[in-house]
Amino acid sequence: MVLIRQLPGLVQLKMMHREHLFVYGTLTDPAIQASVIGRVVQGEADTLPGFSKTIKRYQDGSFPVIVPDVQGRVDGLILSLLPEELLFCDLYEGRDYHRIMVKLHSGREAWVFL
Predict the structure, then answer these.
(1) Is 9 within the bounds of a domain?
(2) Is residue 80 included in any domain, yes or no?
(3) Which residues share a beta bridge with 57?
(4) Are 49 and 110 in contact (CB under 8 A)?
(5) Among 85, 64, 67, which Cα is nearest to 20's?
(6) CB neighbourhood size of 81 (10 A)
(7) 58 vs 8 pLDDT, higher one
(8) What is the rounded distance in angstroms from the CA atom of residue 31 to the CA atom of residue 26?
(9) Domain count along the chain
């Protein structure tokens, strides 16, 4: 991804490092993305093999989670985020979730919250 900054009499190009995050629950919602990340992210559809999605109950409500399942698969979206946007997602998910790197059906690697 390239960011173009306009300065008086000068255009500066800067390569921006991106992190990929596979989302399957609340972070697929554009309103939640805008609230957490600060913008709506156009995701790309992909599938996570080896996991199944279920609902887990917490004190503040019920939320989707994924669990290992050799025959399972979870459909979701890959979001391309700046490193600081990924940290906002860490804060949003809180202590109940942890982030791991996975390989998706497409062959791409991405972070996912379990």
Answers:
(1) no
(2) yes
(3) 62
(4) no
(5) 85
(6) 20
(7) 58
(8) 9
(9) 1
Token output for 45 = 């559809």
Distance CA 55, CA 64 (A): 4
In three-state secondary structure terms, 35 is helix
Range of the domain at 84: 17-113
Q: What is the mean predicted confidence (pLDDT) over 81-107? A: 95
Domain annotation covers residue 7: no
User: pLDDT value at position 63?
Assistant: 87
Answer whether residue 2 is part of any domain.
no
In this prediction, residue 46 carries a pLDDT of 98
Task: From 97, 96, 95, select the one nearest 23 (Cα to Cα).
Answer: 97
Average the pLDDT over 49-77 and give the result: 93
State the CATH number of the domain containing residue 36: 3.10.490.10
